[in-house]
Write a structure and sequence with these properties.
about 110 residues, mainly alpha
Length: about 110
């Protein structure tokens, strides 16, 4: 969960929603694809070889992390926020959606 916090600090405030969605999607895709890859690897090789491969990849990642530059991100100045007195339910429904989409296919 710390990685989500770090990513939200790096993404500019004007594109925060987009940045969080891309990060969450990449995490979700990785979690979805990983089990089939592991199962197909285990069908051909032993469990010990998979552990050695994992150890090698972890070592490579650790080595690469030493060469990664940590750049300081400057915070964007937030402008004055306008107070909208409109209720939140006005933004919940899409008014441009045609009515057949509401009823479904009959």
């Amino acid at each position: 969960m710390l990685v989500f916090t770090i990513s939200s600090n790096i993404v500019p405030k004007s594109r925060l929603g987009e940045g969080i969605v891309f990060f969450a999607m990449s995490t979700s895709v990785g979690t979805t694809i990983r089990p089939p890859i592991a199962i197909s690897y285990l069908a051909k090789f032993s469990f010990e070889s998979m552990m050695m491969l994992t150890l090698g990849l972890m070592s490579f990642s650790l080595l690469c992390s030493f060469f990664t530059k940590n750049t300081k991100v400057e915070k964007e100045k937030e402008g004055p926020q306008t107070n909208n007195d409109e209720p939140i339910y006005k933004y919940m429904f899409v008014k441009a959606c045609p009515s057949p989409l509401y009823t479904g296919s009959i």
